[in-house]
Design a protein that fits this description.
heterodimer; A: two-stranded antiparallel ribbon; 20 helices; 1% strand; globular; B: alpha/beta; D-Maltodextrin-Binding Protein, domain 2; 6-stranded mixed beta sheet; 5-stranded mixed beta sheet
């Protein structure tokens, strides 16, 4: 503990040089830019910057790249809230309440709520990481495919097992998502699935393309259909709203702490930020005092996914360094960089290169504060966009959507696919099918399937592998409890005569 | 006497001039073709893995030594186990500004699954390195050597868990060859990447894996996994000690350890699209030849314990032809060939 504190202080010495602070600002600004443009995204941004870092010291290089990642995480929430287009997979859940708030003229409030929750999540995440940095690697080694499956199952169960919408429609949406997730090459059998003999589907259906269509274009079509009330939203803007939101944040302390805890847990276990944000939103919608208002612009519906997303993003970086297994696409690119700089990620990195590891941890503190201040100051600018009349705004959104779909992998087929998903999203909205289960299934579906089939191979087909030890059994029990919760609640409320 | 000396110096001078001139004259003058536009390096893998590092390292060497006048952009097209990159290579026929980086998967993938390209759609430029394969186990395992591991696997019937990256790819092929050489059955569990397999072995969730040195070295250093033998005719050359005084050169070959197969490695290959000219191919070959002579390249090979390899032209084509034919026979006996 004391040793760690000393190491951290030394890390701050490394991180707080002028050179490194300039790098952080540069990284954060580029990050916000790539985060705001859907499709470009953090992994591509990091890959683009990578050649620049070849000539740098490893610690400077990782500070630049990780700062860009934090910037992109913040930037990704901006388009989710303003245009209903998630810039990053992990900010999908932010659209559920963030965008309704923006449409009610509360864009500045929604943005500052998102950024402040995210900043809080990131800082708590890094504190936890500092405290248990040396134990993370040993804990993460306990995860076999069975535990992975239990974590994904838990995320599904926490998000889905609930009333509100027709359970049959939820099931349909979920199954479409699972089918979409299985397109492309199958890891376990090595076969191509659902490609219909074409080349374009071999790489699978990109999650980002689907989301751009379902949310961005679908929302646009629905707005046009609702009768084009072309009056601009009277968005209040100004730093006064930011200040007021900041003062109001303590009201959400329960949601903040709960979501951050979920985020840190999902970051350290290999669930990742996307699963964390969905799970935190699902749990909040079930237990919050304001649960009736969820989906109609409830600030807590923004707090939950944002705090979880960022705390998971921060917590996921350490397992990558300690295990050499990247928790996200962005982390994978950074890890490739690490090896080119001559470092070997793995359990020995903490002993062999403490200056690098603790310099990075200290830079997470500083860079997130830098990022938070920067994004908060951009709120008036972004919220101002919402004042534009719809006739001006809609071509802009469509342009962002289509270029975003193109940028994912430079393929024209993806653009057509995004348009197709736009129609699907519109139809689902009209017929009252929930879109979120489809998205969740697309993100976690193939991972859950792989983990399940790997477990089955390892146990020679015995389902008992999911109850084989305390860790996996408690995860499974928790998931089943979440799944049964709506049923239990109904039984319970029936017993009490109204 | 003086005449002889003069003649001698003349001959020597001429010889030196002839020897040195190819190094002095830039490739442009020697081969007559130079890239005119920014060049795209297409990586047949996602970001972070061995193939990705291979391409990015070549990019960084080119950049550092100013070997090219045009910028190099690296694009990852790892969909469909890398086939996305080769399909892109097919679509870029005749374009010498697209260079594809892969492994032996270029000729193995069309054998096992329906892909959108044929081997004839790409021209091999060079094989630049060979990634070695080792048999690893975790440190809690009861067996002490490769023979002990095989005996335990035989006892457990098919329940012995061998982890590997992807199905019907190198790790899976090697596992099949081990089964054939030793007559035991194993359960092959495919994961997404070598890094994942390394962690699964370190956690003791699989019993063994056949990872490349770079994929497992961190866990070996951490004392969680240990190597049993290397699938090569010769021991690894690196003298560095990794853990508890044991180093790469101390690992026995699988021949010495008494299990087969004796030799298995994965060449790292570079390709141009079909319908590019011989001059264009020669340009890239000489550029890659310059890259492999830099200290950065040697250092990268050593860091990953990869073996140096340099095959081009007819020699490379023969290697590909033979390996493809042998693999086709093997895959047919495993029932992997699509109907």
């Amino acid at each position: 503990m004391v040793n760690d504190l000393g190491a951290l202080l030394h890390g701050f010495e490394v991180a707080l040089t002028l050179h490194h602070i300039v790098l952080m600002f540069a990284g954060v600004l580029i990050g916000i830019l790539v985060g705001v443009l859907p499709g470009l995204g953090a992994p591509n941004g990091v890959a683009l910057l990578l050649p620049l870092t070849f000539a740098m010291e490893p610690v400077s290089a990782i500070i630049l790249l990780s700062s860009m990642y934090w910037g992109a995480l913040f930037g990704g929430s901006t388009t989710s809230i303003l245009f209903n287009i998630p810039g990053e997979p992990s900010s999908v859940a932010t659209t559920f309440d963030g965008h309704p708030m923006a449409r009610q003229g509360r864009a500045a409030e929604a943005l500052s709520t998102a950024f402040l929750s995210a900043g809080f999540g990131a800082l708590v995440g890094v504190v936890v990481v500092t405290l248990i940095a040396n134990q993370i690697a040993t804990f993460a080694l306990r995860f076999s495919p069975a535990e992975y499956f239990a974590v994904y199952f838990l995320a599904f169960a926490a998000f889905i097992g609930m009333g509100g919408t027709d359970p049959l429609k939820t099931a349909v949406s979920l199954l479409i998502g699972l089918a979409l997730a299985s397109v492309g090459m199958d890891t376990v059998s090595g076969e191509m699935r659902l490609t219909f003999g074409t080349d374009v589907l071999v790489k699978g259906i990109s999650f980002l393309v689907a989301v751009i269509g379902l949310f961005g274009i679908g929302e646009l079509l629905a707005t046009v259909d609702e009768g084009l009330h072309a009056d601009a939203v009277d968005a209040r803007l100004g730093l006064r709203d930011v200040w007021r939101t900041l003062l109001g944040m303590p009201r959400h302390w329960v949601a903040l702490l709960r979501s951050t805890a979920i985020g840190v847990w999902m970051g350290i276990t290999p669930g990742g930020p996307t699963a964390a944000s969905f799970m935190a939103y699902g749990v909040a919608r079930r237990v919050s005092r304001n649960r009736a208002k969820f989906g109609q612009g409830e600030p807590e519906g923004v707090v939950a996914p944002e705090a979880a997303d960022h705390s998971a993003g921060v917590a996921a970086l350490l397992p990558m360094l300690a295990l050499g297994v990247p928790g996200s696409a962005t982390a994978a690119v950074m890890m490739g960089g690490l090896m080119i700089w001559g470092l070997q990620p793995g359990p020995m990195l903490f002993q062999e290169r403490p200056d690098f590891v603790w310099g990075l941890i200290a830079s997470i503190y500083v860079a997130n504060i830098v990022a938070l201040v920067t994004v908060l100051s951009t709120i008036p600018l972004f919220a101002g966009i919402m004042r534009l009349p719809f006739a001006l705004l809609s071509p802009l959104i469509l342009t962002i959507c289509l270029t975003g779909a193109w940028m994912v992998s430079g393929s024209g087929f993806d653009v057509a696919l995004a348009c197709g998903f736009g129609l699907l999203g519109y139809a689902m909205k009209k017929l009252d099918y929930p879109i979120a289960p489809l998205v969740l299934a697309m993100v976690l579906g193939d991972k859950a399937e792989d983990a399940f089939r790997q477990s089955m191979l390892m146990s020679q087909g015995a389902l008992s592998i999911f109850w084989a030890n305390a860790l996996v059994a408690s995860l499974m029990a928790l998931a089943l409890f979440f799944l049964a919760l709506p049923l239990l609640q109904r039984l319970f409320s029936r017993r009490i005569p109204a | 006497m003086r005449r002889t000396a003069l003649l001698l110096s003349l001959v020597l001078g001429l010889a030196t001039a002839i020897l040195i001139s190819p190094a002095l004259i830039s490739p442009a003058l020697a081969q007559g073709w130079q890239p005119q536009r920014p060049v795209e390096f297409v990586v047949a893998a996602g970001p972070g893995g061995g193939t990705d590092q291979f391409a990015r390292l070549v990019q960084s060497v080119i950049q550092k030594h100013s070997l090219l006048r045009v910028p190099v952009i690296v694009a990852n097209k790892g969909g469909g186990a890398g086939t996305e990159a080769f399909v892109h290579g097919r679509a870029s026929a005749g374009n010498p500004h697209v260079v594809v980086f892969g492994t032996n998967n270029v000729w193995l993938m069309p054998l096992v699954t329906r892909v959108g390209y044929a081997l004839a759609d790409l021209r091999p430029v060079a094989a630049m390195a060979a990634d070695e394969f080792l048999l690893w186990t975790h440190t809690d395992a009861p067996w002490s050597d490769a023979r002990g591991l095989i005996a335990a696997a035989r006892e457990r019937g098919g329940a012995f868990r061998m982890g590997g990256s992807q199905a019907r790819d190198t790790d899976h092929i090697l596992t099949k060859q081990i089964e054939r050489a030793t007559g035991v059955n194993m359960t092959y569990v495919p994961f997404r990447s070598g890094g994942e397999v390394a962690v699964q072995l370190a956690g003791g969730h699989v019993d063994a894996n056949t990872n490349n040195p770079a994929e497992n070295v961190a866990q070996w250093r951490g004392g969680r996994v240990r190597p049993l033998c290397v699938f090569s005719q010769r021991r690894l050359a690196l003298t560095e000690k990794v853990h508890n005084g044991i180093g790469w050169a101390d690992i026995p070959t699988c021949g010495e350890a008494g299990i087969g197969p004796a030799q298995f490695n994965m060449p790292r290959t570079v390709w141009l699209p079909a319908r590019t000219t011989d001059a264009q191919l020669a340009f890239w070959r000489s550029l890659l030849d310059q890259v492999r002579q830099t200290p950065e390249w040697t250092e990268w090979l050593q860091r990953g314990s990869q073996s140096a390899m340099w095959r081009t032209g007819a020699e490379l084509e023969a290697l590909i032809r033979e390996d493809e034919a042998a693999s086709r026979r093997d895959f047919a006996s495993y029932g992997w060939l699509p109907e």
